[in-house]
Amino acid sequence: MLAPLPPNDWSLDHAAHLLNRAGFGGTPEQVRAFHSLGLDAAVGLLLSARDNRLAPPAWTNDPGSLRRQAMMMMPAGNSGDSGPDADRRREAIRDAMREEREHIVELRRWWLERMRSGGQPLVEKMTLFWHGHFATSVVKVRSAWAMWRQNQTLRENALGSFRSMLQAMARDPAMIRWLDLNRSKAGAPNENFARELMELFTLGIGHYTEDDIKQSARAFTGHTVSPATQEFFFARRAHDYGEKRFMGRSGRFDGDGIIDIILDQPQCARFIAGRLWEFFAYENPEPGLLDAAAFTLHGSNYQIAPLLGSMFRSSAFYSKRAVRTHIKSPVEWLVQTCVDLETGLPASPALDIALEQLGQALFQPPNVRGWEGGRSWISSSTLVLRYNLAGYLVGATDPAARRLFNRRLVAPVDIAKLAPASLREQPQALADALVFRLFGATRSALLRTRAMACVADAAQPISDTKARSIFQRLMSTPDYQLS
Predict the structure, then answer these.
(1) Strand pairing partners for 188?
(2) DSSP labels for 140-190?
(3) Residue 56: DSSP 8-state
(4) In Å, what is the CA distance from 460 to each residue of 411, 421, 425, 427, 465?
(5) What is the pLDDT of residues 133-185, one digit of tens each?
(6) What does the alpha-carbon distance between residue 194 and residue 253 come to, in Å, rounded to a whole number?
């Protein structure tokens, strides 16, 4: 098993680190309250939190929306079609496409609001992880409703059974369209889903053969989507009921049978444990640590929560390799910044433009591999945009921040709360408070020195304008891009 962190080592810095990685950060008050629980209870709270008070958009229950999406999936007809009926159809399709774009914008904001204040940070963080793992894009799926359904499936299974997750993904309408399962039938199986199931979802490259792909593809024939309901439909006549030879076993396997065989492979537990460790802790975990994580996952019959509980209680999770070494993704950066500043998400279209330019438009990963992550999030242009967006959010007077999105800013944060007058009269105390709020640190001499330099540069007394500028300077450091 993973070596646990000694209870006496549990600190405020550790509590902040756990909230940052297992969620989207916390205010100083939330960090202190979280720390007071003790490590075991704090991890238990994260794993048990269930708060679904933020209802999804109304159109998710609108049958008319499903009919319009079904119409969009139908062939457009010949380019030479003419007449009143053809004109009405083209206009209806244009209206439906415009509505779909509006729905995706609304869906993105709904999910970001859940991350920001939904009450179950680990569930939303895991949903974000699974969204990158089972990367699916609305560009090809062309259905906001299908993307919402997939998002709900990821959320419902986020901390549960990986087996159930795989079975659900093989029946997910968005995934079926994304990887062309709806075009797969006996005698002509499509291999896209079968390949990605092993390469990206369960085993990794080098742990299966081309023949395994072909035999697996036969097992998933018949998985399609009903045009009338937009739900999963098993087309019995399209399924290949013949015997398959897969990973050394023979039988008349269907898709669930293939998934069971894959999960029996030790490499599957190792692959998933590794992906989770790299997402929450650090890259390239030590072989022994990875073996222990895989053992925990396999021993729990692929239940995700026990592995996460073991990870979050381990000393390795709080080691120097883990703390402040993870480059925040654009979504993590934006949501955590709003938490740090105790402010709401920016309004549209600023919100949508920012995430698109930063490289992480939700429901639109670049390819089947999802977002590369890590250092790929940072370039000269995205780093400058982060700095300017920090100024935009804090209400700084920096000209670049004010020009952002061609809008003159109205201060979105309560700067008097973030930097109260009593603290502004005590430079070192103010610097310490800023380091704790923005970096979750109480012991870092380097961060305290940098914060003190920013405070010392500000003319006394420190006005609201100067306080906003101090926040922007600290949020524009390389350290703030890390968690």
Answers:
(1) 185
(2) HH--HHHHHHHHHHHHHTTTSBHHHHHHHHTT-HHHHHHTTGGG-BTTB--
(3) P
(4) 21, 12, 8, 10, 12
(5) 999 999 999 999 999 999 999 999 999 999 999 999 999 999 999 999 999 99
(6) 13
Q: How far is CA 364 from the centre of its chain?
A: 12
- Lookup: tokens for 259: 């998934």
> Hunting for tokens 């002509």 — which residue is that?
188
Residue 137 is given by DSSP the state -
Question: Which band of pLDDT confidence, cut at 50, 70 and 90, is reported for residue 411?
Answer: low
DSSP for 211-227 reads HHHHHHHHHTTTEEE-T
Q: Helix, strand, coil: what percent of the chain each, to 5?
A: 60, 5, 35
CB-CB contact of 268 with 203 (8 Å): yes
pLDDT digits (tens, 9 = 90+) for 103-116: 999 999 999 999 99
CA nearest to 418, candidates 480, 337, 354, 483: 337
pTM: 0.95
Instruction: Locate the domains of the chain by residue range.
Output: 7-48+265-318, 330-481
As a whole number of angstroms, the distance between CA 182 and CA 9 comes to 53
Tokens of 414: 């309560």
Question: Which stretches of 132-259 are assigned E, i.e. beta strand?
Answer: 223-225, 232-234, 244-246, 249-251
Rg (CA), the chain: 25
